[in-house]
Specification:
The protein has six helices and no strands. The protein is an all-alpha fold. The protein has one domain.
């Protein structure tokens, strides 16, 4: 293969970079959600245990118990650590694809990209524009960055 790649090759290469960045951002978001849920769960459990201390207001243990139950249930249902692990595996899959990309032609890279996408897990949809902006910055095209809504800016900070 020559040093020059076709426009099709570069398009597929950048799509793989975008998919990798989206998986990385999604995994990071789920890891941080998992960490925050664990912290809030421990804090709520501490508030619940405070019921044994007479000088604590009566509402504090009740609030702690309710918060602990809600956070615990959400943590069990969402399972952010599991979702983060799957997204991290997808990000590694795209990193391996990008490493092999130099040895593939345009149609070969397109086929490898389609194969990689076949096993992707669902993403957090608002992170798509954030990942797009990451890749546009990486390839030196800040003029193609998208305007982020306020919720997307918060997600960008978290992820």
């Amino acid at each position: 293969m020559s040093d020059e790649h076709s426009a099709q090759w570069w398009q597929h290469h950048n799509e793989a970079r975008y998919a990798q960045r989206l998986c990385q951002r999604t995994a990071r978001l789920y890891r941080r959600i998992d960490t925050m849920a664990t912290f809030v769960g421990v804090l709520a459990a501490s508030a619940s245990v405070s019921a044994v201390v007479a000088s604590v207001p009566a509402w504090l243990p009740v609030a702690g118990a309710v918060l602990l139950a809600a956070i615990g249930a959400a943590h069990l249902v969402v399972r952010p650590a599991d979702k983060a692990a799957v997204n991290e595996a997808d990000a590694r899959k795209y990193a391996e694809l990008l490493a092999r990309a130099q040895h593939l032609d345009g149609p070969g890279l397109a086929a490898a990209l389609a194969e990689a996408r076949a096993s992707d897990v669902p993403e957090v949809e608002p992170l798509r524009d954030v990942a797009w902006n990451d890749v546009m910055g990486e390839i030196g095209r800040p003029d193609l960055r998208l305007h982020l809504r306020p919720a997307q800016r918060v997600l960008a900070a978290l992820a």
